[in-house]
Amino acid sequence: MKGYWIIFASDVTDPEAQQAYGQLWGPIAAKYGATLKPLAPGALLESHTSSRVLAVEFASYAQAKACYEDPAYTEAKAFALRAARREVIIIEGELS
User: Fold this and answer.
1) DSSP SS3 for 61
2) Which of 3, 26, 66, 87 is surrounded by the most beta carbons within 10 Å?
3) What is the CATH number of the domain that holds 62?
4) Bridge partners of residue 5, in order along the sequence
């Protein structure tokens, strides 16, 4: 089964940090075969703090976990956390 990161995030408040995250994320995504899975507009129905929800798809749950735990991602994540408030969950399954 596939693995997913589901990311609930606020609007970006630090565009420079978001840009740095994007530059670091590209090679990490390629290494783990991660792809952004578009969600339907309006997928986020109830939230007090998030304005965006994203899904990142991996070939397996194990790959999703390994990517999150990769030291290179730990470095990139520091920029993501500066760019916006967010919460991340990792799940196993199939999103349609």
Assistant:
1) helix
2) 3
3) 3.30.70.100
4) 56, 90
- Give pLDDT tens digits along the chain (96 positions): 999 999 999 999 999 999 999 999 999 999 999 999 978 878 889 888 888 899 999 999 999 999 999 999 999 999 999 999 999 999 999 987
Residue 4 token pair: 């997913």
> How far, in Å, CA of 81 to CA of 94, rounded?
27
Q: What 3-state class would DSSP assign to 6?
A: strand
Look at residue 23 and tell me if it is in a domain.
yes
Q: Which domain holds residue 63?
A: 2-39+51-93
Cross-strand bridge partners of residue 93: 2
38 alpha carbon, distance to own chain's centre: 12
What are the C-alpha distances in Å from 51 to residues 10, 29, 83, 94, 96? 5, 23, 14, 24, 22
Tokens of 29: 């995504």
